[in-house]
Specification:
Blueprint: E1 2-3, H1 9-18, H2 20-23, E2 38-42, E3 48-52, E4 58-68, E5 72-77, E6 88-97, E7 100-108, H3 125-144
Antiparallel strand pairs: 1-7, 2-3, 3-4, 4-5, 5-6, 6-7
Amino acid sequence: MWPARRHVPERAWEAFTGEIGAWWRPNILFQTTPRPGRLCFEPGPDGRLIEMRDGGKVFEIGKIRAWEPPHRLVFSWRQASFPLDLHTEVEVLFEAVGAETRVSVEHRGFDQVPADSAARHRFPDRLLLLRLADFWRAQIDAVGELFQGAPGDET
């Protein structure tokens, strides 16, 4: 959780959606494309999450399914190695808890990735989902680093 003095859910939302290109950390296990680029949300209920690569090529990771600032974001998710018709879903919740903001991520549907897909790395379901949880934990830690040492913070 992040201190809420100046990091109320509105600021956490802004960092997650507006600054994703600054904090996102590519991961070999869950990379969206073979040569990762910079992530960016096209905001709003009709927006998308895209990856912009050198040379201007754009890969659409997913479409926004719920855009409810500053409390809830839902978007589809697909990696280039997914079958063309497969999209998983990510839901992110931002909740004020005392003097902090809790950010929760639920990534649903990854267990539907076919067993022979490169996106699974031959992991059985349980291990795949544990690795996916570790991946998202590292992403949330990375966005939280934006708050470390920010003006007005004593954290």
